[in-house]
Design goal:
single chain, alpha+beta, 2 domains, 274 residues
């Protein structure tokens, strides 16, 4: 729970020193290559290199690529990535993959230590924020859904989109809805003290397998800790497998919101097909 997340020890990490050593070796090699290219003998044309984005060769480009890989390996290898909610992950994605619009932060012992310590200290708050965010997105304004807590069962709007002839019963998965279910599954794993699912974005695969020529409707998609029934109209019914998971989610949600209703008066847009 939150208290445990805030006071528990850092989960076992990868060899951060080894990752940084490889990063430093790549940068040193780039500096050596750069020195060679800058000292081309007279009468021989200077070599030019470019990457897939048609950027000219430079030590800085190699440095940023090496730092990008190092940050990714450290965050995911230490397990701290599991504590980042969707908002924090989007922020990191913007930092690391801005296509040259923003420089990638240098990854060294000091910056890695400070970043890991910051994430570790804030992981409880981020988990609470993530649970609240998932609740907002998963709990549309149906009368049977509570406005202040997860229920044992919840109606989900537009898990899929009907298409083709009306009698066909064809339904396609909405990727945004699948992403929301992935977030819910990840939060349940974190609150149980388990590693997050190894397969990224597995909800789309699970939902798609369920609604592709189902034996009968509603189609049933089984997740590790909950089940989703998808109907021909594209809506779904979510049922948690374990009551203790609902208690965990609601305890964190109450901490995140102060027990306030966070959905009242908010009209959510339906998911759109992509």
């Amino acid at each position: 729970m939150i208290q445990q997340l805030e006071t528990g020890a850092v989960i076992p990490s990868v060899a951060v020193d080894a990752i940084l050593a490889k990063r430093d070796a790549i940068v040193r090699a780039a500096e050596q290559v750069d020195a060679v290219l800058r000292n081309v003998p007279d009468g021989f044309p200077q070599l030019q290199f470019s990457n897939h984005q048609h950027q000219r060769w430079s030590v800085e480009i190699v440095r940023q690529d090496a730092d990008r890989v190092a940050w990714d390996q450290i965050l995911k290898g230490t397990g701290l990535w599991s504590f980042l909610d969707a908002t924090a992950r989007a922020e990191w994605h913007e930092i690391l993959y801005s296509d040259g619009k923003k420089p990638v932060p240098v990854c060294n012992h000091e910056s890695a230590r400070d970043t890991m310590a910051g994430i570790h200290a804030a992981r409880g708050a981020m988990t609470a924020r993530g649970v609240a965010d998932v609740f907002r997105r998963l709990s549309p304004d149906y009368r049977t859904n509570r406005a202040d807590r997860f229920g044992d069962r919840m109606i989900l709007r537009s898990i899929g989109s009907p298409w083709g002839p009306k009698a066909s019963g064809w339904v396609s998965v909405n990727t945004r809805a699948a992403d929301d279910l992935d977030d819910l599954s990840r939060m349940l794993h974190v609150l149980r003290g388990l590693p997050e699912p190894a397969e990224a974005r597995s909800a789309y695969r699970i939902l798609n397998a369920a609604i592709t020529r189902p034996d009968s409707w509603p189609a049933v998609a089984q997740f590790p800790f909950f089940q989703v029934k998808v109907f021909k109209n594209g809506n779904g019914h979510l049922a948690f497998d374990f009551a203790e998971d609902v208690l965990r989610l609601n305890k964190v949600l109450s901490i995140a919101t102060g027990g306030a209703t966070i959905t009242a008066g908010v009209r959510r847009e339906k998911y759109r097909s992509w």
